Amino acid sequence: MGGREVGDPYEDARRAMVALIERYGVRDRRVLDAMLEVPRHLFVPEEQRRRAYEDHPLPIECGQTISQPYIVALMSELMELRGGERVLEVGTGSGYQAAVLSLLAAEVYGVEYRRELFERVKTRLAEAGYGDVHLRCGDGYWGWPEAAPFDAVMITCGAPRVPEPLIEQLKTGGRIVLPLGRPPHSLSLVRFRKTSRGLVKDSRGAVSFVPMRGRVERPPEEK
Ligand code: SAH
Description:
Layout: H1 11-23, H2 29-37, E1 58-59, E2 65-66, H3 69-78, E3 86-90, H4 96-102, E4 107-112, H5 115-127, E5 134-137, E6 150-155, H6 164-168, E7 170-182, E8 186-195, E9 198-207
Parallel strand pairs: 3-4, 3-6, 4-5, 6-7
Antiparallel strand pairs: 1-2, 7-8, 8-9
């Protein structure tokens, strides 16, 4: 699988991007290889293509962003994927992270809130050769109950708390990786592991992300 073009003019840039990510400390070889393979330039708007392999986030449509390559790598590594897993991504945006995940796991389910981005990402993933990613438009707060349970869940928008349905849809032993806190800047990259005694948290430093919209913006329901 994969959308590598013949005579891809971005191959050297992509190699340099991955070398930088490796220097920053990402060790998971499967993650590095996936990022060597996915043509990131196909996931950004035309006018951003020449910047696609620089290590920053870039604007995509609807005022949203495609995450910085290093953060994509780090979040992917934190998912601890070995190839057989079923994973959920909340906030599919450009589709780049979903394409990377599709090379790391057996099945990827992506939920995107904004209709315009959803329509675009469907076409974009299919054209780039990642048409096996399952996509849905809606509020990712509710997860994807029909496809649950998941081995790992990634949320790529900033949220003040982990949505309860996503915890329920995770297997015991599963991971949830997300920017947790007050968007856009008071967020830390966090991984929760679901154990038989509840969630175990591991924090990995400050990050910036666009906010998660929808149900999570309202207070939690009383129990
Ligand atoms: N992973 C994306 C990053 C996109 S930015 C990529 O690789 O390009 C975050 C995305 O989260 C935006 O597209 C935004 O529309 C989406 N989003 C925000 N709130 C959401 C919600 N409640 N459910 C699903 N997607 C959401």
